Amino acid sequence: MRVIHWCPSFLAGGGVAETVLGLANAQTLRGYQVMVVSREHRHSPAYRPRLRTDLRAELHAWDPVRTLMVGKLPASLVPQRSMALLRTYEPDILHLHIGILPEDVLARHAVGRTPAVLSPQGAFYPQVLGRKLRPYATVLKPVFYNRLAAFHAVSPAEAKMIRRLFRRHEIYVVPNGLSADLTFQPPTNSDRDDAPGRAIKLICVGRLDLRTKGLDILLHAFAAAAAQSPQRLELVFVGPPSGSDYAAVVAIIDHLGIADRVSFTGMTDREGVVRHCKAADIYLQTSRWDACSQASIEAIALELPCILSSCTGVSSYPNIASVPHIHVVEPQMEGLANSHAICRHQEEEGIITAADG
Q: What is the DSSP letter of 7?
């Protein structure tokens, strides 16, 4: 079987790229012929070296002939040789990722007789589409979305959004998985500092996107919990900055007077993420919206106690939300529900007792 993964943002790195990497490698290991097609990105994107060196499938990178702005969307003209490559590869399946860019439509029509599957990866969330992009998606229904063989939703929550928007029944739900190249073992006692009276370490993994990731909510909740907790709490952000949001995050930290409790690691690779998670006590994720957080899945795989936003796709899986060491909370700006969850999580997991010896 020959599979093409069309993901223009693959070489830019990030959670979707990690998902495509893992899926393409897993399919290659099963004996499929797989090719990942991405736009070229030369601006030092996250995890780019690993995406190139660890990909076991073929990689085709293209440079746009020209890029125009269609409203808020960049429309890139794909070189003819890249379109010809799609046809000569003769794929049995075309797997599109995101699926809202004009070049996605071009790729679909280049191999019009090939069954195509679309993984939106959160692109159809109302906060992403907004008022300006919703008419654009409506226009594309007859010429693009209605000609897909199926939609792949990464969570039950995303499946509901797709069904509501397109009224389609060809939707299957499969969460984003772990990378096929990494082994995730639950942390041992030696991974954490068990010295009496040590600080309780909380971790948040992902780009420093203030609004999407709900970092303002997280910081207010953390500050309230730190004031209530009998044990010192410390928070570690693992991930790259996102535009000017880093300065806004730092300003909130200074305003709350918690600069001595919060640290940043900056961008790191997947092994580094796992290393930081193994050294933490609680994983926090307070996103206002998130289709299926890769970092949350990794934290769950590491059996790390988690506090997850109810607005993320991961928490919409009943079997995840019912796990005893996973707390699902409403992302509220007041932060009270989240700060209470942090304190309650310490007590239920026995973290304070263990730290006090």
A: -
Backbone φ, ψ for residue 350 (5° rounding): 70, 25
Asked: is 2-173 a CATH 3.40.50.2000 domain? The reply is: yes
pLDDT tens readout for residues 111-156: 999 999 999 999 998 888 887 788 888 889 999 999 999 999 999 9
Q: Tell me the three state secondary structure of residue 219.
A: helix
CATH of domain 189-355: 3.40.50.2000
Separation of alpha carbons 330 and 116, rounded Å: 36
> Is residue 7 predicted with pLDDT exceeding 70?
yes
Average pLDDT score over the chain: 86
Residue-level pLDDT at 346: 64
Angle at 243 between CA 241 and CA 248, to 5 degrees: 80
Total Cβ atoms within 10 A of residue 33: 16
Residue 353 has pLDDT above 70, yes or no: no
Kindly tell me if the per-residue pLDDT of 344 is higher than 80. no
Confidence (pLDDT) at 356: 35
DSSP 4: E
Delimit the CATH 3.40.50.2000 region(s) of the chain: 2-173, 189-355
CA distance 115 to 170: 12
Q: Where are the beta strands (DSSP E) in 110-149?
A: 116-119
Non-local (6+) Cβ contacts of 39 within 8 A are: 8, 9, 11, 12, 61, 62, 63, 64, 76, 103
Residue from 200, 165, 350 nearest 282 by CA: 200
Question: Edge-to-edge strands of the sheet including 262-266?
Answer: 262-266, 233-238, 200-205, 282-285, 306-309, 326-329
- The predicted-structure confidence for 17-74, as pLDDT tens digits, reads as follows 888 998 999 999 999 999 999 998 876 545 466 788 889 999 999 999 888 876 667 7
What's the pTM?
Answer: 0.84
Query: What per-residue confidence (pLDDT) applies to 264?
Result: 96
Provide CB contacts within 8 A for 16, sequence distance 6+: 7, 9, 10, 97, 98, 121
